[in-house]
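Researcher: Next entry: Phosphate transport system ATP-binding protein (Symbiobacterium terraclitae).
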Amino acid sequence: MAVLLSEGFAVRNLDLHYGTQQVLHQVSLQIPDRAVTAVIGPSGCGKSSLLRCLNRMNDLVPGARVAGEVRYRGEDLYGVGADPMAVRHRIGMIFQKPNPFPKSVYDNVAFGPRVNGYEGDLDEIVETALRRAALWDEVKDRLRKPAPALSGGQQQRLCIARALAVNPEVLLMDEPTSALDPIATGKIEELMTDLKRTVTIVLVTHSLRQAARVADRTAFMLDGRLVEMDRTERIFSAPSDRRTEEYITGRFG
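Model: Predicted structure:
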């Protein structure tokens, strides 16, 4: 019997080409709301490309072509009249390398609301976003200091706070801890667990241990195709596909 998931993303028969190269092949999967979904697989398998399809970031890549269907809460994100900017407002993205703007901590977090014409209390927005990113106590006395002066882990949490400042419904995280030390990685993982109460998180990671620690569901990809997706516990203990088992146990990839 099929498992009923809370409505989030429904991806059906998704193909992606970069020029003449096809990088995603007929990918279909469901991603539930308010959970952490991990996407794992060897380098070059299409994990990040899939992630970028979920908020139309691939629109910015010359020669990129998407076919198939990507729905979020029933809305066709590639349908006629869908606004890519509005999609990215709802579905934020955190990249592999922290990328704070060359501005103060405060101005980094306030950037999105300012661009969107927010006329309310920016101080409140900044503090709330920094608290949600578990960074407020560390930077509350440094709000006017340059953001690039923060540590790598702090910079990544600042980027998360910057994304949260515009109240996204989803955070797409592309290897968000790959450049961080174990302590900073632990803080980001704790943050993901906390944020999923209010925000849907889709996590691309090369770390199987990280997926096992934080993800509610895990998808395994290979050669641009979805091999299988299930509850994380089942993927790691009793995968249904031999290729998944071989990857999980380190026999390839």
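Model: Note for the record: The mean pLDDT is 94.
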